[in-house]
Amino acid sequence: MSDNYRSREERRRAMNDNKPEGKSQGKPKKKKKGGLFRKIVAAVLLIGIIGLIAGVGTFFAMISDAPKVDDSVLKNSFSSKVYANDGKTVVKEIGAQKRTYVQYDEIPQVVKNAFIATEDVRFYKHHGVDFYRIGGALMANFKNGFGAEGGSTITQQVVKNSFLSPKKTVKRKVQEMWLAYQLERKYSKQQILEMYLNKIYFASGEVYGIERAAEKFYGVKSVKDLTLDEAAMLAGLPKAPTTYNPVTNPENATKRRNTVLNLMAKNGFITQAEADKAKQVDVQAHLAKQTESTSKYDVFIDQVIEEVKKKTDADPFSAGLEIYTTLDTNAQDYVDDVMNNKVVNFPNDKFQAGLVVVDNETGGIQAIGGGRNRVSGGLNFATNMRRQPGSTIKPILDYGPAIENLKWSTGQPIKDEEYHYSDGTPIRNFGRNYKGWVSAREALGRSLNIPALKAFQATGADKAKEFATGLGLKLDKEDGEAYSEAYSIGGFRTGVTPLQMAGAYSAFANEGMYNAPHTVTKVKFPDGTEIDLTPKSKRAMQDYTAFMMTDMMKSVVNESYGTARAVRTPGLEIAGKTGTSNFSAAEKQRYNIPDAGEKDVWFNGFTPNYTISVWTGYETAKDGYILSANETGMAKNIFKHVITHISEGKPKGSFKQPDSVVERSVEKPTGKDLKRPSGSTPSSLITKEYFVRGTAPTKVSQTFVKKEKEKEEKKEDKKEDKKEKKDNKDVKPKITASYSGGAISVNWSAANAASDTTFTVTMSSPNGSEQLASGAGAGGKTISNPAPGATYSFTVTTNTGESASSSVKVPDSSDQATEDDSTKPEDDGTTDDNQNEDNSNTDQNNGSDQGDDSSTQPDDNQNSNNGSNNGSNNGGNNSGNTDNNNNDSGNANDGNSGNNSNNGGTTTPPADNGGSDSGSQTPQTPATPSTPATPATPQQEPTTEN
User: Fold this and answer.
1) Residue 231 needs a FRET pair 20 to 30 A away by CA distance; which of 304, 388, 557, 561 works?
2) Is 0.85 surpassed by the pTM of this model?
3) Which is catalytic among the residues 165, 204, 391, 805?
């Protein structure tokens, strides 16, 4: 039994042990190579076998309950039911009634090639599953993110749309691959392609199958009549029927069609020259006129179909689904009446409108107004049309982000002034004027552009964009936008839809929680599977931002400066924002549009329960422009009617102030900082504003405290000035001039002069004018050797503005002796303040007395040159005015009749009479001839106190 070894290794060892020793001596033993590698390979193979067995077991377990390949299901379709928001009312049953089945042989090769090049270029080479394509899709998804590229073949798409639910699970994918393999075993490639082309969905309005699509879009009687560019367009539609619809989105449609043509050329179905030629055809050149009118709820149902296909990959027209929606039939019926001219009067048939009604709490779309005079599959102005939002974007890109990130208050001061964008381009308000310092609330209410841009810049473009993105707006280049500062006032490149704006505004009403607007809540499949399609709520902003922005938008509606006062409705708390956009200069010139013509007019508004976004305008510039009051007010008019109707019989609710917000009284902005009002602040300049808790101002304004103090000081100064002026009026300067002994003697003084009263004396002579003296107190001066026969005039002026004048004529040399001899001390030409004689050389600025006297004269100007009769005239005039004319304290005997304070020939008429002083009179001495009177400078009329 010794030869019975347990292994080959033992036998080998035994043989070595029996070898002669001499042969093995001196040679080292060699170790066997590759032992470890073989062990690793063996382990891998073992794991692979185990994995294969497990995988096969799992595979069969997954396909064990896969549905059978049923011919009737493949060739027939099952209609789907659409339910209203009560979950019971079936509003429509959609299905195969608008399908035209076409046989494989009737489909032209150009159509087959277009779809194969686009959807499954290896269609004729695989057996239902293309592992090469799956590998390529995995690499694309790894590089560009999950979902970047799909790996399903045409066969798999037929299986998925016919037998399986749209749940994206591993089990469903395995079943799809298994059934695709089974389908390939049972049907030929031609039969499978025929099934695919007859089941595929092309557009809203139940456009289903290639024959129906050809008729709908190009008006051809048969699919055989399609051209290359038309076939390429239809082949590009199934990926996104709404996005690439050539009727409503020609720009996107053109790009998609050209992509298909490139794929056909790349894979050898056509030449590059043929592709380039087909690209030159306008994508709308051969489109048939859309004449099929829509039926009840079709606008809403179109949105339902799009959502179901996008979110589930199921085909509502053939999958036999039960679709539960958010449709409020009462609201939708009323919106349809509005669109059909039964509620408001539209200006003309081409004038268009689009609106969306959203439930604030859920985001569920209650009703859609897709446009007026719509046809099936036509442009939906509520969900597909993108237009510049105008100033309705300001809460989203400007003030909302500023409150959210900078904690601005509703009263944040912003200076509305001449301004420009960062690149130097000027920006202007609509009214081409500036308001100075305004609050953010007022700036939004007045829809001022400059404060909006400043708010955008204060927050920063990136933060503003982030805020808008959180509200469902897409501002990226791939979405056709070129984000810039112009967006702050609505200067978009392509624009937004009412659907997007309704969703964004509803978040303000919903305390900052954003719910994507949606029409479908859940879908039930024939096998009992249910999918919940309700979007999840997400916080788009803080509750303080939502409340404060809402309150600012209430001012747009309620304040006297607000632009949406027309939507005020009794019993409803409404907030919102208006917006307009203009035509380009090229459009104005081409279509002869006036400067005041507007392109788009919006109103986005909400109550605590509902949000409505309304757009109005014309489809194209050639159709018209908005100008009349009826047109410009139509968006607000529509909103008011719809919000009133859908709110009837329901709790109105109110916007609740969160704990994160406080209300404080502040002074209206006059600078960059807000301050609390003082006790001196006028009530008209005090306003209440909201603040994020902890940010309210604590400093009390001193503006009106200072102004009140300054006002009191000015009041006191005014009293002092009045008193001083009154005192100054009592200062009556007096000047006398007389000639004697070859010289002129001049003396000046003033009654009631204060110690600081100063005098300035000037003389006018044949040699010109000169200043004789200047200083405080009375005084005198002698002028020696005056020129014979010349007249010398003298004026004294006080620092209080009062003045008096006097003049004297020097006798000729022939009269010198007579004058000297005949003059006596008591009447030598000088005046003694205590004498009662008439002084012929004095003018004491007695305008006040003369003014009173003149009131008794028939003609004021008769008092100008009455020196010879002054004795009698003054005596008569002063007899009734003794108490009023005692202003000249220089005369001792003021009560003497005829000489009361006035000198015989020196009277000054009131300034407003235009009269002049009478001049000097010679003494009334018979031997002395009188000298001619020299008019003195007229004086300002003094005030007379009675």
Assistant:
1) 304
2) no
3) 391
